[in-house]
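Handout, section B. The chain below has 255 residues.
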Amino acid sequence: MVKLTSIHAIEQQILRDPQDCVLYCGDKPVAKFKAIIELARQQKVEIQNTSQQDLDRMANGAHKGGILMVPEHLVPKTGNYEELLANCLSEARTSQWPPLLLALDGLSDPHNLGAILRSSDIFEADGVLLPSHRSVRLNDTVSRTSAGADQWVSVVEVTNLNRSIKLAKEQGFWVLGADMNGVPIGSIDTNLPLMLIMGSEGDGLSSLVHSNCDHIVSIPQGGHLESLNVSVACAVLLYAIRSKQGFGSTPKKKN
């Protein structure tokens, strides 16, 4: 069983697939968690009342009044990269905007990954590529920070990011690398399949990934600070790309 402690992650899991989940509730739930309990009742999730002491022990103190235990087979797993590319191109025929993939080159902070997954869901990125080496992993911290977006965004582990870039290019994607010394994102044609690559928190894009990009893009900025946090920069770039494609001109889709 996998433990979820974030209220948002618990809510999204119950909405997505509540089968065989168990909700453990303490005797001091916060107001927002009371709504989760009611949702669980509506979705016929098994609810177990437990002491605050036992709940603290189960959650290592990190909870808002309860935790959700989820069977391993219900937890979103990293998928297959080739299938993701094929699905993106297939669905592009009926989609409102071109395919958009996001790749993360050496990201290390789970809070940044969680925030990026949240932005990826909001701006409907088709998938996120996560290198299997020297990269942050999916975990409960990521889930909490993503506000449950990890339950919806397709995350794919790749063993070699540069080979993945090459394969994307062969399938018709243009690859954009994010760097503060790049050309303004607004000058780039976004009406085609795109892969956006964000670098690590400290070093940015690795040299080989940088050289494999078709364009290096940046966010025009003023002020006194040198740059944006990587998760904030990612959100701005995703918005800039999608807005040029017409995102926001139609009502938000409901699941």
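Note. The chain has a mean pLDDT of 87. Compare this with the example in section A.
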